[in-house]
Amino acid sequence: MSDLRDLYQQVILDHYRSPRNFGVLDPATACAEGHNPLCGDKIKIYLRMDGDRVDGATFEGVGCAISTASASLMTEAVRGLERPQADALIASFLALMTGDGNGAAAVDLGKLEVLSGVKDYPVRIKCATLAWHALRAALEGGDSEAVTTE
Question: pTM, whole model, 2 decimals?
Answer without folding.
Answer: 0.89
